[in-house]
Amino acid sequence: MPPGTLFQYIAWRTLIAVGSLFAILSALVLLIDFIENLRFASKVPDTGFGLAVSTTLLRAPSLTQMLIPFVFLFGSIWMFYQLNKRSEISVMRSAGLSVWRLLAPAALIAALSGVVIITTLDPLSSNLYAQAESLKQRKQDSEHNLVRIFGDGIWLRQRNADGQLIINASNYDDERAALEKVTLWRFNSESVLLERIDAAEAFLSGRTLELHDAKLRSPDNDQSTYTPIYAVRTSLSAANLRERVTAPETLSIWQLPRFILLAEAAGVPTVRYNMRFHDLCSTPLKLLAMVLIAAAFSMRPVRSGGAMRLGIVSVFAGFALYILSEISTAMGESGLAPEALAAWIPAVVASLAAVTALLHFEDG
């Protein structure tokens, strides 16, 4: 068989195995998510089947993207096992082909898929995921809170039945739960400005925003009124503010670098955003590692009970990779390891382990 034909044959088998497994697992995950969204919709007045369908469809790209590393692992294991079971790998090896030539098509597909995912699919899924979360929040909360970070600092908006608050702060001190250089605009329920408040600092205390050294000014009076402490009722807390900031999952690889710079300037913790950025960057290597691990497990000669043994080992490998990923993520978020190192550890360790096993297999 000519090298080009052999490459196309293995590549085609890889696409069929990975694509079929992806379709099956995606259908299962989306069905589970749809059931959860139906439960959510049943608890919200004036919503129903339509909200569950909309939320599921918007979340679908993001949820299925999470499956891709394991799809490549188990799909490649199945593909190599089938080739091995029919003695095709033995024939190819006897023809003088190295193990690297045999896994090159699948490895190339995995690496290219990783590039396509982080440059094309992830920006789409991030945008749709953000729309889904916004939709659920609007339907669930009677008070709508929004936190955004721009070049001029942090902007917060709180809307409820009594009116609306818009707050701008140049910086946020997470340890003290304090906003610095604060300007607050308070509107009534008809969006009429009631007052503007400028303060040196504002502290989130329970469900109250305490503005220190505040200057109050109303539209009817040009003179400002000074007060040492001015309290404003708010539904935002320190923990809630961190949660309301744009979620890392809603930002693509193109948006994350600028957002990280803005968040650092505004004093907002950026650990999760750095972790996501480096995790996305490691996607091609991670998918390549899945193929290498699959080849290391499934290219050996098939013996009696080999299918059962291979299944058990592959499930154990997938579970071990998941545990390693969770541990490295926890280390990065807790500050025990640099974010970049923690995000790249699973891909690098898996690649090195697989290459070592394949070298041992190649040398006999």
UniProtKB/TrEMBL annotation:
<dbReference type="Pfam" id="PF03739">
    <property type="entry name" value="LptF_LptG"/>
</dbReference>
<feature type="transmembrane region" description="Helical">
    <location>
        <begin position="102"/>
        <end position="121"/>
    </location>
</feature>
<feature type="transmembrane region" description="Helical">
    <location>
        <begin position="310"/>
        <end position="329"/>
    </location>
</feature>
<feature type="transmembrane region" description="Helical">
    <location>
        <begin position="63"/>
        <end position="81"/>
    </location>
</feature>
<dbReference type="InterPro" id="IPR030923">
    <property type="entry name" value="LptG"/>
</dbReference>
<dbReference type="GO" id="GO:0055085">
    <property type="term" value="P:transmembrane transport"/>
</dbReference>
<dbReference type="InterPro" id="IPR005495">
    <property type="entry name" value="LptG/LptF_permease"/>
</dbReference>
<keyword id="KW-0812">Transmembrane</keyword>
<keyword id="KW-1003">Cell membrane</keyword>
<keyword id="KW-1133">Transmembrane helix</keyword>
<keyword id="KW-0472">Membrane</keyword>
<dbReference type="GO" id="GO:0015920">
    <property type="term" value="P:lipopolysaccharide transport"/>
</dbReference>
<feature type="transmembrane region" description="Helical">
    <location>
        <begin position="12"/>
        <end position="35"/>
    </location>
</feature>
<dbReference type="GO" id="GO:0043190">
    <property type="term" value="C:ATP-binding cassette (ABC) transporter complex"/>
</dbReference>
<protein>
    <submittedName>
        <fullName>LPS export ABC transporter permease LptG</fullName>
    </submittedName>
</protein>
<feature type="transmembrane region" description="Helical">
    <location>
        <begin position="341"/>
        <end position="361"/>
    </location>
</feature>
